[in-house]
């Protein structure tokens, strides 16, 4: 692509980002393109589980086409617990452009702009990790992901559009999103996820599971040391293998071919290093939509654990809050079955003057409570940096 075309695409993407408002149902930026949904043609009725939801979405898309909608797609978010209500709709229209350019600007520190309350308290979270490790060592399960939250309160309404722009500028290698949780009374779901759950383009499918993480360092030599330590960490390699194997198992029944890397690679965000497996395949049949494929993987051991049922049960026992849309999936699916769904990570719910941030860490037999606590603190930095906050002492 020549520079003139690239400049045109970048300009169009800038306009979509600048044009976002919190009442828009959906914004989605990836390394390849930018989407902005406007208006609402129809809402997607609730379903009892993900299999039923895929069927409902297919029916709603068909009805929209029959009604003359020129390009119906479903957009929105699905909770961690798929028994809870999803927030999906068909917009009146979706505007498309190429990728956003990275123009991250330093955000001035805002001391005192927010009050921050960890939920649960850091020591309570560490105690929960210790409880999980005991369960794992007693062979009840091999991995569980435990999360915690930060409750932020501001003196004035939080500027969602400004926050989205800052996240998008710093996350051009990942997936930045905003979903209007209209009808739920929960405000806006906003985030900058590094993890692609599932994309489908024609017969080509891709998943990029991440598991095994290390915080970035400001010193270049220390940052490089941490990345290499992660790449050779037996604990993190085991944690990653559990996730990559589960994703491969979930996709194989649908695929004619599936390419799974023998070992993970390193990727990074502004705040974290991650172990990454780029899994690609070709569908055996075109009937499986991106939502159906993503639903077959959700929730992966990267956000729940393994075995899934036992991990889900332990999360319910230890975590004293409802994850809601955190660790769910957010994305889109069109009438041809193409689409993208990412894991709802590095995210927050914003409503008026309040925000709730979420972060989790994978716990295995070798986990140390203080290390997992530190990992969640590092993951909070994605959102805190965009807000101009660096409250290390309270995390």
Automatic annotation (TrEMBL):
A single GO BP: salicylic acid biosynthetic process
A molecular function (GO) term: isochorismate synthase activity
Reaction equation(s) it catalyzes: chorismate = isochorismate
Ranges where the Chorismate-utilising enzyme C-terminal domain occurs: 123-379
Record flagged with keyword Cell division: no
Domain of life from the UniProt record: Bacteria
E.C. no: 5.4.4.2
One Pfam match: Chorismate_bind
Alphabetical keyword list: Isomerase
InterPro entries: ADC_synthase, Chorismate_C, IsoChor_synthase
Sequence similarity: Belongs to the isochorismate synthase family.
Protein name: isochorismate synthase
Upper lineage: Bacteria, Pseudomonadati, Pseudomonadota, Betaproteobacteria, Burkholderiales
């Amino acid at each position: 692509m020549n520079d003139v075309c690239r400049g045109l695409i970048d300009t169009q993407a800038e306009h979509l980002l600048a044009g976002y408002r919190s009442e828009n149902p959906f914004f989605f930026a990836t390394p390849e393109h930018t989407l902005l949904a406007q208006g609402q043609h129809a809402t997607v009725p609730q379903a009892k589980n993900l299999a039923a939801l895929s069927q409902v979405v297919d029916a709603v898309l068909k009805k929209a086409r029959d009604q003359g909608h020129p390009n119906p797609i479903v957009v929105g978010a699905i909770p961690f617990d798929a028994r809870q209500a999803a927030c999906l709709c068909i917009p009146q229209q979706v505007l498309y452009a190429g990728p956003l350019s990275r123009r991250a600007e330093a955000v001035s520190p805002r001391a005192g702009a927010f009050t921050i309350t960890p939920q649960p308290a850091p020591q309570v979270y560490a105690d929960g990790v210790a409880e999980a490790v005991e369960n794992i060592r007693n062979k009840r399960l091999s991995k569980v992901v435990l999360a915690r939250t930060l409750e932020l309160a501001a003196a004035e309404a939080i500027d969602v559009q400004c926050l989205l722009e800052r996240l998008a500028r710093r996350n051009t290698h990942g997936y930045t999103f905003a979903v209007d949780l209209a009808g739920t009374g929960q405000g806006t779901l906003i985030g900058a996820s590094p993890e692609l759950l599932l994309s489908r383009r024609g017969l080509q499918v891709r998943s990029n599971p991440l598991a095994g993480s290390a915080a970035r360092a400001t010193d270049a030599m220390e940052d490089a040391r941490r990345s290499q330590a992660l790449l050779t960490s037996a604990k993190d390699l085991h944690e990653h293998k559990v996730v990559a194997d589960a994703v491969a198992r979930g996709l194989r029944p649908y695929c004619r071919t599936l390419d799974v890397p023998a070992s993970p690679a390193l990727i990074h965000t502004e705040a974290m290093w991650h172990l990454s497996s780029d899994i690609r395949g070709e569908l055996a049949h075109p009937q499986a939509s991106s939502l159906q494929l993503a639903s077959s993987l959700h929730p992966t051991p990267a956000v729940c654990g393994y075995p899934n049922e036992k991990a889900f049960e332990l999360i319910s026992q230890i975590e004293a809050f409802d994850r809601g849309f955190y660790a769910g999936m957010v994305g889109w699916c069109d009438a041809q079955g193409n689409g993208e769904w990412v894991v709802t990570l590095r995210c927050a719910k914003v409503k008026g003057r309040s925000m709730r941030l979420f972060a989790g860490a994978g716990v295995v037999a070798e986990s140390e409570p203080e290390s997992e606590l530190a990992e969640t603190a590092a993951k909070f930095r994605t959102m805190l940096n965009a807000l101009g906050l660096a409250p290390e002492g309270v995390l």
